[in-house]
Amino acid sequence: MEVMFLDAAYTGKVKLNQATLDYITKKKYRKIGLYASVQFCNQLAEVEEQLHKLKLELVTSQPDRTHVKGQLLGCDNYHNSLNLNQDVDCYLYVGDGRFHPLALVYLQKDNPQLKEVICNDPISNKMTLMGVKDIETILKKYRGSLIKFLSADIIGVISTIKPGQEQLRPSFQLEKKYPGKKFYYFIDNTVSFDNLENFNFIEVWVNTACPRIGFDDQEKFLLGVINLNDALEAKEILSQDSLFNRQ
Amino acid sequence: MVLYSTEVEKVIERIKKSEAKLVCLQLPDGMKTYAKEIADKISQETKARVLIWLGSNFGSCDIPLGLSKMRVDLLVSWGHNFYHKKVEGW
Predict the structure, then answer these.
(1) Which of A40, A110, A154, A242 has its CA 20 to 30 A from that of B35?
(2) Is A66 close to B62, i.e. CB distance below 8 A?
(3) Rounded to an integer, what is the distance from CA A135 to the centroid of its chain?
């Protein structure tokens, strides 16, 4: 079977509204990390020109799983996936919705300080801001799940069969890292939240499917869930000075 | 006003070129209302039978599985581009 992907580019004009420009000026941000979802990322010429007029330095990158520079995916919620090798004063996201820009907040969870995420939606022509307050409740629960993971003996590891998300083999590293724990591996088409409770011998879950499931769907896991890469570095994550540990 | 470009002409060209007989359309939630218009246009312009994917389209990591077993020749997925999977984990 052949697969054809279409960007579904936004048909309107992509430019920053005055509120966004005024806000960046007021905050005296100088170095901006610019990202957009695929519907907008090929139409950023005018945005770049607007920011250059304000003499701002623009930086961007091509995150690991994306196809073009400046494109942001919702699963870019870990800092190393951005491939951005320099510091910025703030992030600027161009696009609609909250799912994508929230990744820019999540990816800072292990940093000592948060860089503000400014969202400019060309469809509604509105600016919104995102910060720790948008994820603090989730981070508190996630931290509880991470602590629980360290003391748990029986862990359920969830993989899904979708080729883009499947991370079964990397999850086997858990056995080497935690030889005292017993891991049971579960496989599904997509994560069936309703079926989790049927496996009542599991103490806590490790998610290896979409990394946003570990955060956004935290409440659907009554026993708690953490993502695979956090499970592999649980002690290190809990011991550092970070936004995550200050929740 | 159509907010997102559907590029149906590009799809029709691809169907004709590949002589696809069974085509599945996968749209993100924000574009599911476009399904009728796209399906009608493809049916008018090509000989392909059109299926519409009912479920999710969270990303190009989320393409439907099992379509080949149903002899679907072409899956058209809107709202995402090619996904470069990291085999060693996230």
Answers:
(1) A40
(2) no
(3) 11
pTM exceeding the 0.90 threshold for the entire prediction: yes
With cut-offs at 50, 70 and 90, classify the pLDDT of residue B87.
Answer: low
ipTM exceeding cut-off 0.90 for this assembly = yes
Contacts of B11 in chain A (CB under 8 A): 4, 6
Q: Looking at beta carbons, which residues of chain A come within 8 Å of B77?
A: 3-6
Beta carbons of B6 and A162 less than 8 Å apart: no
Taking the CA atoms of B69, B74, B75 and B80 in sequence, report the sign of the dihedral they define. positive
pLDDT in tens, A188-231: 999 999 999 999 999 999 999 999 999 999 999 999 999 999 99
Query: The dihedral of CA B62, B65, B70, B74: what is its sign?
Result: positive
Q: Domain A136-245, CATH 3.40.50.11860 — does that match?
A: yes
CATH superfamily for A18-134 is Diphthamide synthesis DPH1/DPH2 domain 2 (3.40.50.11850)
Contacts of A179 (CB under 8 A, 6+ apart): none
Cβ-defined contact of B62 to A12 (cutoff 8 Å): no
Domain boundaries, chain A: 18-134, 136-245
Of B14, B79, B85, the CB nearest to A8: B79
- Taking the Cβ of residue B34 and every Cβ of chain A, the question of whether any pair is shorter than 8 Å is answered with no
pLDDT of residue A119: 98
Residue A38: which of B72, B81, B89 has the nearest Cβ? B81
Residue A51, classed as helix, strand or coil, is helix
| CB proximity list for A157: less than 8 A, separation 6 or greater | A171, A174, A183, A184, A185, A186, A205, A206, A208, A228
In whole angstroms, what is the distance from residue A132 CA to residue A114 CA? 7
Residue A105 CA to residue A67 CA, distance in Å, equals 22
Q: Which residues of B touch A68 (CB under 8 A)?
A: 81
* pLDDT > 90? residue A87: yes
Same fold, A18-134 and A136-245: yes
